[in-house]
Amino acid sequence: MAKPVAARSFLSTCLLVGVAIAGLFAVDTFLARTERIESRVEAARLFSEGQALLRQGDSAAAVERIKDAIEIERGNRDYQRSLADAQLAAGNAADAEATLKALLASNSTDGPANLTMARVQVKQGQFPEAISYFHRAIYGQWPSDAAADRLRVRFELIDLLAQRGSKEDLLAELLPVEDQAPRDLKARMRMGKLLLQAGSPLRSADVFRGILQEAPANADADAGLGDAEFAQGNYRSAQRDFQNALRLTPGDAAIRKRRDLCDELLTLDPTLRGLDPADRLSRSSKLLELTVDDATQCAGQNPTAEMRVLLDAAAKNLKARGSAAAESNLDLAEQLWQLRGKDCSEPAVKDSPLALVLERLGR
């Protein structure tokens, strides 16, 4: 009977040992989980402090606090993105770039990381690279409202292109969002101005006309429409739009100046419809006289042989009469203006009535 008792005793001992091991494992697991939770809480606290410091403008301190959070929770991409933001805000673009390269190496479609990298490239003056990263951000992955975030990024790129005067690139970015942009008045006014800046006055005019259909007493929209018409060479329409704006804001000196410029152009332009032959000849003669004066002043005492030939031809033609003389006046004015651009070191005033009319003739 001793053997069964011994066997039972051995089994009981093994069971107790097993229970003890399981208990110790459970305690160890519990303690490890508790430690991980406490570590995450501590990392979150440090990260929150870093974010607060960043909002307060103390970006250098924010960098250190966020680094402390990352030391505890190394795999947290939100912390790493925020570290790059803080590094950039602190003026450490190279450090931010290194942080972002590591992030993008593991996920090249990270929308927020690509956006910050675009800003880093802008800071470093690398604009082609910046545009590339903006596009990666636009088509990348976003954690919550992707459509809104992508639209926001595209408008940030649009603002950059507008500042740099990149007309073709600006228009290419505007067209995809023309129908997605917010429909409030401020956003539509902004879109109209951006389209004009991008070299699309027709689309710009359509935007401003739409605003005026809903809000006829909007002086800014009248002025915007005037600018769009002016850019197309429709000076009579632009004059009317600027006049409408002045009725609403009579003290606006900038709009009045644009209206007055339209007045000058309308009295100088010999190509306007409805002019009788005498008026057309008179205007063409005046245009040629102004062009001769400008070219003579620019050339000085020693004009080139080609310039001298054209000046002599202009002097002779100004004495002629008839419809043929009017056409010759315009041809000579265009030739002198083109030669003036080659021979003269001093550029012409682009928004002068003379330059605008001749530019229109050359289209």
Q: What does the model show?
A:
The chain is built from 17 helices and no strands. It has helices at 2-55, 59-72, 77-89, 93-106, 111-123, 127-138, 146-164, 167-177, 185-197, 201-214, 219-231, 235-248, 253-268, 277-299, 305-317, 323-343, 353-361. By secondary structure, it is an all-alpha fold. The protein is elongated. Among the domains are: 181-268, Serine Threonine Protein Phosphatase 5, Tetratricopeptide repeat, CATH 1.25.40.10; 277-361.
Percentage beta strand:
under 5%
Number of helices: 17
Over all CA atoms, what is the radius of gyration?
Answer: 36 Å
Care to count the β-strands? 0
- Spell out the helices and strands N to C: HHHHHHHHHHHHHHHHH
Strand and helix map with partners:
Layout lengths: L1 H54 L3 H14 L4 H13 L3 H14 L4 H13 L3 H12 L7 H19 L2 H11 L7 H13 L3 H14 L4 H13 L3 H14 L4 H16 L8 H23 L5 H13 L5 H21 L9 H9 L2
Helix pairs in contact: 1-2, 2-3, 3-4, 3-5, 4-5, 5-6, 6-7, 7-8, 8-9, 9-10, 9-11, 10-11, 11-12, 12-13, 13-17, 14-16, 15-16
Describe this protein with a few key phrases.
363 residues, single chain, Serine Threonine Protein Phosphatase 5, Tetratricopeptide repeat, mainly alpha
Sum this structure up briefly.
The protein is mainly alpha-helical and 363 residues long.
